[in-house]
Design a protein that fits this description.
Layout: E1 5-11, E2 18-25, E3 30-37, E4 40-44, H1 49-60, E5 67-72, H2 78-84, E6 89-96, H3 99-106, H4 113-117, E7 122-126, H5 129-134, E8 149-154, H6 174-181, E9 184-194, H7 200-209, E10 212-222, E11 227-237
Parallel strand pairs: 5-6, 5-8, 6-7, 8-9
Antiparallel strand pairs: 1-2, 2-3, 3-4, 9-11, 10-11
Helix pairs in contact: 1-2, 6-7
Amino acid sequence: MTPLFEELDYRATPMGPISLRRRRLLSLGEDVFEVMLGDEHLMSSLFTETERALARLALARLDGDALDVAVGGLGLGYTAQAALADARVSSLIVVEIMEAVIDWHRQGLVPLGAELSGDARCRFVEADFFAALAEEPPALDPAAPARCFDAVLLDVDHAPDRVLSPAHAALYSPEGLARARRVLKPGGVFALWSDDPPDAAFLNDLAAAFSWRDAEEVAFDNPLTQARSSCTIYLAGA
């Protein structure tokens, strides 16, 4: 008999202990996978609409085919899956600092693991997304340091002013965002997930670094609160 709760993995990391949990929600009749950093909830398979919207909204701003996409943060893989669902995407790298998270996918411990690991267009890169952008020149792909992308999608921190590590904060400044622009092809799109409502100050920072910027609120049904919740997707163009 399948237990109602399992801790599938637990590992120490420089950012604190990270764990993968599976729980059975009897009220919904389904299994829910959760990623925890210490006692902090990072993500849940119960809420995936906004992670998918991050890819969908960014790619909708792009023309052409044979798109090269980079994702910062693998998590449970829903942003990567949504990007690969666009037939125009010819290559995708996912930059993930946690070895454990990549292992969960390669070992099939998470629902999308086999799908992402088996897609020839998708490659996992174990690296620090923020440190890679701080290099000179900024480089997200260790195999091709000068490589640029049609879209860069970031889903790591809770919001630009609510970061998981102090080392991340520099990216959300006008100078850091300008470095992110340097890894975009002409006409490329930088997109960022946030758990907070649109922030006017951050939109101004995006405007200082990019040729255009926008913020779209994405609403979704929350079965835990039985109400509507929302997140923000920031979009900016080179």
